[in-house]
Give the backbone structure.
Amino acid sequence: MDIGINEKDRKAIANGLSKLLADTYTLYLTTHNFHWNVTGPMFNTLHIMFMTQYTELWNAVDPIAERIRALDSMAPGSYKQFQNLTSLPDAPSSPPKAIEMIKILVKGHETVAKTARSIFAIASKADDQPTADLLTQRLDIHEKTAWMLRSMLEK
C-alpha cells in the first residue's frame, strides 16, 4: 500500500481510530439506553434530544470504521473488542434519574473528544488530511453536545 503515509503511522492512526470507534459505539449504546429509559418532568425534551444524539453517533461509526479500513487495518466490530478498547464505562445496569443521565453523557462526550484529540497529532504529523478532517468534525460535535448537555444542568 502506498498512499503517502508509512505503515507505522498508518497503524498508529488506525489504532487510535479503533479506540475512537469503540468510544463512539459505547456512547451510542448508552445514549440509546437513556432514550428508552428516561423518565420525569424532562421526559419529552430528553427523549427527543437523546434520539437526535444517538442517531448522530450511529451515523458516525461507519465513517470511522471505513477510515480504519482505508488505512489498511481491520476495524473492530465486536462487543468484546469495543469493551477492551473503550475509555467509557458501560451504561448503568439500572437506569439512573434524568439528571444523572445528562451528567453521564456530558462525561461521555468529553471523553470521546479527548480520544479524538489524542489521535490528531499523529494524523497531522503523518500528513493524513482525511483523518484530521474526520477528527475535527468529531471534536466539533462532541464538544458542542457536551456544552448543550452541561447547559441543562445549570440551575
